[in-house]
Amino acid sequence: MIIPAFDLINGKPVRLYQGNYLNQKDYNVNLRECLEEYKLKGIKIVHLVDLDGAKNSKNRQLNLLKKILSYGIIPIQIGGGIRNIEDIQNLLDCGATRVIIGSCAIKNKIQVKKWLDIYGPDRIVLALDVHINNNKKEIHINGWQKKTNYFLEDIIEYFSSSQLKHVLCTDISKDGTLSGPNFKLYQDLVKNFKNIKFQASGGVSVLNDIVSLKKTGVHNVIIGRSLLEKKFTIEDALKCWQNES
Fold it and tell me: For this UniProt entry, which residues form the secretion signal (predicted)?
């Protein structure tokens, strides 16, 4: 399915270029109105990330996230700076449909495995962000600021024993660039991990990108900047996804 995305800094929708906080573009949109429009158009879930929290968990925009969830307009998967079970429970209690776990999946793997067992695979999304270097998918954390020694396939394999179901994978070099997605990345992931519902993220700029992503076998496509900048309409994106068999 198509999943519209909003990244928030200081309460405002923004996009970063390749995850760089120094290369930020602000958007003057009314988030509530956007959520209402997407629901009317047939969107099933929206992706929301607190970039302040992703960069530093002490700066999480928790009151804002609670306010957005209180609208109850449309299901939301939400992430950014989630570091403990209290964070997860808080967001779920406030109405989040899914909680996105990023850096913690690398820093605290054993604990995240327990969270998957406690809440079940439908409530947890692992966000695994990669830079591809000599065909090796290197995972980055802390709002993409820190490279780790972990590789994408190894982490997915590790969590698969806990019935991992949802993985949001972003090629950082594509994010916010409108340069087209990394189709081979998703093709390989779908081929190697048939039980995972992958969410492709980064680079979608034209409707044909959606067609090509559907052909890779991914279950979901996250679209941010293209919708914010009206490169195409949400109606066209949905039609494109539904028509491609």
Answer: none
